[in-house]
Design brief:
Elements: E1 2-5, E2 8-13, E3 16-20, E4 22-28, H1 35-43, E5 48-53, E6 60-66, H2 69-79, E7 85-89
Antiparallel strand pairs: 1-2, 2-3, 4-6, 4-7, 5-6
Amino acid sequence: MQRRKQGATLWKKSGRQNRYGIKAFINLSVEPYQKKEFYPFIQSVPNVIECNCVTGDYSMLIEVAYQSTVELDHFINVLQRFGHTKTLIVFSTSVEHRDIAF
């Protein structure tokens, strides 16, 4: 859930609200031999909302939330030790995360 409050965005996840100004998706190319080091690293980053192994030009799709572009930029610089990145910053969300009935 996204709501505007005092110039900041509140991102609601798992029933708790966190104050973040920037939400982004980062594509990352990770070589198979790097995954042993990458997975523990990415799991340890508290700003990572979700990380998925995907097909296509990149091997990982990482959803993150940060308070500023400076913090996001620092994380991307650290992340680039694993490979090439492409970052997409979210302007707005037209469909919130929802559960799918099976």
